[in-house]
Every structure is written in structure tokens, then in C-alpha cells.
Amino acid sequence: MSLRFALLGLLDARPATGYELTHRFAEGIDRYAWSAKHSQIYPELRRLTDDGLTEVVAEGARGSRTYGVTAAGREALREWLLSKGGPRGARNEFVLRLFLLGALEPDEARAVLERVVAHSDRQADELAGVLEYLQKERSGDGAPAGIDAEELAAQYGAYIYRASSDWAQWALDQIDRSASGG
Amino acid sequence: MSLRFALLGLLDARPATGYELTHRFAEGIDRYAWSAKHSQIYPELRRLTDDGLTEVVAEGARGSRTYGVTAAGREALREWLLSKGGPRGARNEFVLRLFLLGALEPDEARAVLERVVAHSDRQADELAGVLEYLQKERSGDGAPAGIDAEELAAQYGAYIYRASSDWAQWALDQIDRSASGG
DNA sequence: GAGGCCATGTAATGAGTTACATGATTAT
DNA sequence: ATAATCATGTAACTCATTACATGGCCTC
């Protein structure tokens, strides 16, 4: 069910073809929130359209179809976002690895954690760049239109990666301490 | 494939029955890392055993079987943990909602974000309690045995929830500013 | 015209959820 | 005895990935 709403949300921000959506999934949302391949996206777009939640707003070259959200679709999306639905099972292989570090020898775990720090820092830096760009762009056109979802998402990533880096550094410290003091 | 390693990791920390594993999944790991139901766990335990990665170390009442990791299993787990395998598609409905907040009116988004702050703070507090308990427990028995995976995991959650709360507060601020300042 | 990207589709397989089903043990 | 919990299993279904497949458009 989540894929439906992911698609509705992305299309609500801006109409797009299945191809474009596939790539938007591959960009950022994929890392934290949800991932999907084109083989799942195309059929779902058809189903959404059959259900009256999306519609083809334009047809272009190479048989491309640009989809947009209908009034019913927007309402379904709003409803879903406002329903509090308990936070259910996450799936994140990266985090799973962190949870299982106990199976490694301290020096091996160190190596993994150092990679986590490096990776998190790199991602955080990248997002800082994105944010800077977004802010510049925004200062150009006067009044911002409501909520800037792209900025919220980028900032979320920045907060999470910073936390992840901090945690990994704390964990390294922990290992060092138990190695020397232990 | 991840389920295999999740099970190997949990069993490596401590042998357990399928029933116990089901509940460990339902506890904490489930929220950040991976979730699974018993209907998936039991068959996988059998497959792991067929593949020689786990073994039945005890049989108890009610036909219960306690599984442990074999040498081959430990090796497979280590290998997986040390392989850097690119961080692939996460799935987290909670985060997905945050990414799609742009579809809501500012006041609606406010309400959602306030719930995020409340929820994250509550979780962070709960984890702080867990950590305090773990630290007390550890100060009891002298030398800690290598890496305390439970503590790492709890601390990870604490860092992430704090970041999530901070982010949501920043986002609320952002909405307020764009509402007044325009 | 060749290579690369745009654009969509489907079939086979694997992973995960829900629902159905059963029975033993323990606590009240 | 009766309810709760322990403990496992399987069948039907849905969701997701991988692989196969096709063709149009654009640039060089």
C-alpha cells in the first residue's frame, strides 16, 4: 500500500512519467523512505489510474505518459498522511548490520564503524551542498509556496546522517575504552 | 537474504527458539532494522539448518527447538558484516510520510510534526531508561565481554530519535517563519 | 548508422503478510 | 476447567526484484 502513496505524493509535488518517478526513487527517497523499480511503478500507475486517483495529463514522445493526481487522489493522500497509523516494521540493511556488530571482533567492528563515520560524513556534506543550493534558489523567487518538501527531506537526511556519524564515533570510543580499561 | 543474517546475528548473540526470535524481532530491531513474522522465521530456520549454518542445540517442552549458530554460520555472518555491500533501498513508512508532508496545508503539517516531536521524545526517553539499566547491569559483572550489541543498538536509537525530534522542531520553525514572514 | 538514453512492458522468481490450524504447558 | 501463553506449522495472497524484451528519439 505504501507504494501507492509514495507515488501519489511524488506526483502531487509535480506530474511525471513512470520513467521520471523511477529515477526520483533512485535518488534520495530511496535511501531513507521507500524504494521501487520501474517494473513495480508502471503497473501501479495503471492501477492508480483505474482507481481514479491519478490521470494521464499529457502524452509525449516515445509513448510517454505524464501522470498527475486527481482530486480524489489528493484526498486519499491527505487522509493517509493525517491518519496516525502505528509506525510499522522498518527495513534497512545498513542499520541491520549495525545491530549485529556484536558478532565481530573489536578490531573488525572498529573498521566497520570507521567506514560508517566516513560514509555518514560524506552524505551529510553532500546534503549540506544541496541545502545551500535550495536556499539560494529560494531567495531568488520571492514568497515560498507553502512547505518546501525537498528542503525538509534534505534537512532530515542531514540530521540523520549527523546523528549516525556521532553514534558511530561514540561506539568507536566505547570499543577503545573496553579494550584498554576492560 | 537479509533475514538469514538477521537470524544468524541474533542466534550468535544467544541461542533461541523460533518463538523467542519472533518476539525479539517484535521488540526493537523491528523499528529500525528489520522485521519478520513467525511464518517467515520458522521456515528460514529450517533452511539455515539444512544449509549447515545453524543447528538444533536443545529440544524442550511443547516440541520447542533451540537453535544455535554453527562455525560455518558464524563465518557466513562475519563475511556478510565485513562486506561493504552498497546501502540499498530502505523501507520505512514513518519516514515516507515525512517526505510527503508537502502535500498538506501548513497547519496540518504542523499537527503531524508535533506528533513526531512527541513520539520521538517519548522513544528517546524510553531508550535512555534502557541504557541506564544496561549500564547498571554492566557495572555489576566486572569485565564486559567484547562489544555489547544491545547497548550499541539502544544508543543508536537514542541518537536517531533525538535527531528526528530536532529535525521536526526545526521543520515546525520553518513553517512558522514562512507563515508569518512569507 | 551506432551508441546511448528515454520509455514502457511482462514473466518468473523470491520475499513477506495474513489467515488458518493445531496442540502443549502454565497460571488462576 | 479455563484462559493465557508457549510453540510450531502451512496455504493463499500480495508485494518486490531480476531478467527478459521491445522500440523510439537524439546526438555524433
Describe the protein's architecture and organization:
The structure is a homodimer. Chain A is elongated. With about 180 residues, chain A is mainly α. In chain A, about 70% of the residues lie in helices and about 5% in strands. In chain A, strand 2 (about 55-60) and strand 3 form a beta hairpin. Chain A has helices at about 1-15, 20-30, 40-50, 70-80, 95-100, 105-140, 150-180, and strands spanning about 15, 55-60, 65-70. The first copy, chain A, has seven helices and three strands. A three-stranded antiparallel sheet of chain A has the order 1-3-2. The mean pLDDT of chain A is about 90. In chain A, helix 2 crosses helix 3 (about 40-50) and helix 6 packs antiparallel against helix 7 (about 150-180). Chains A and B meet through helix 1, helix 2, helix 4, helix 5 and helix 6 of A and helix 1, helix 2, helix 4, helix 5 and helix 6 of B. The structure holds a DNA duplex (28 and 28 nucleotides).
